[in-house]
Amino acid sequence: MSFSFRSLSLICFAFILSVSPAAAGWKGGVAKSNITPQQPMPMSGYASRGSKHAESKLTDLWAKAILIEDESGHQAVLITLDLVGIDRALSQKICKEIGKKHNLKRKQISLATSHTHTGPVVGSTLSPMHYLLFDKENQQLVDDYAKFLTAQILKAVDQAFADRSEASFSWGSGEATFAVNRRNNKEPEVPNLRKAGELKGPSDHDVPVLVMKKKDEIRGIVFGYACHSTTISSFEWSGDYGGIAQINLEKEFPGAVALFWAGCGGDQNPLPRRTVELMNSYGRRLADAVTKVVNGPMHDIKGALKTNYEEVDLALATLPTKEELVDQSKSANKYVASRAKMHLDRLANGQEMSQNYPYPVQVWSLGKNVTWVFQGGEVVVDYAIRIKDEHGDQNLDNTNVWVAGYSNDVMAYIPSRRVLLEGGYEGGGSMIYYGLPTIWAPEVEETIIKSVEKLNQ
After folding, report:
1. pLDDT, tens digit, for every residue of 19-31?
2. Which of 28, 79, 121, 197 is spaced 20 to 30 A from 146 at the CA atom?
3. What's the Cα-to-Cα distance from 104 to each of 97, 99, 109, 192, rounded to whole Å?
């Protein structure tokens, strides 16, 4: 019996399809790279630190990358960073280099920071804290660290791609309850309020968990929690409770890389706090919550990976005039003066103040199961609650919607309309330390929510 050339070609084509990457299922890769500063340098997180350098180390700081690839070959890379935040310029530079090297679009890359307050100054993040304070030597240390950080992030991403192979992904959700709404509960009163069951204000105690396995071996554990990383304020490098949780999970699951991202914890604190013992306790509690999920029944990720990203014009309130900036530059509050001087210098260099800020919103869909929203800035918990209510599966108690803050660009606090109108630190006072010239306009929440709706179509 003979075969035509056409028949032979069809057989060969069918064989190629049977072994193609698209038919082989999902793939993944994971890696980590140490980003602990290699020399003494200023710390970020608290203005009171001034230009004083870190004195020692409690834990290392890490950049960790996980590559997620669906059956069609569509990829996404999440990079988690044990840092207070990252500014727009540095974020754009890093994402551009990753995209160019690995053929990824901006929507396929997410940078998620833990917001630890015991990490280094990063780029121009929280610049009014340092603008009038740093001498050339300290500024050079900050610039050098940004270069080191970029190289280490790229190294982690490269290694995650090198680790790419067949993988399965599953998800679940646990609970941790040490986060407390700091706007509604006075810190000294929290132990008694908690004991009496009288804590007030909204919180988000969900602990989303994503597990990557290869040949039934756990290789990656991604998890989040909505709480400030402010348990300690010493002059020691530390990933705070999120760093401790990662350390514990990597001990519990040898061979796995644990990646932590911060949720909408802009108005949430770990309370009580201020001791290393509490930091270790919270880290262990969070790790235990993740472990319980990993060891329990989880949901398989099935379907397609979808990635979307856009930058929306987030409106600011009325901008200050040049004359008002001059008055502010003479303020007895050195941070008000620093912010004003920074904007006056920019005006002198021909840079006009903008009425809007290019705010990043990103939405990933992991199969038909998980909607993952990444927001820039220090996002208050109202956003997580609303987005879960509007996009979650009620049968799963909305736990299939994950909302990360502190992602891609940490430019300011992001208040809900409620918090903005109430005022206070998260509603406006914090803008001084981030450097934006004024507070947000009232429509900020609706602008962001509409963007999430658009990207989650």
Report:
1. 333 335 999 999 9
2. 28
3. 10, 4, 7, 51
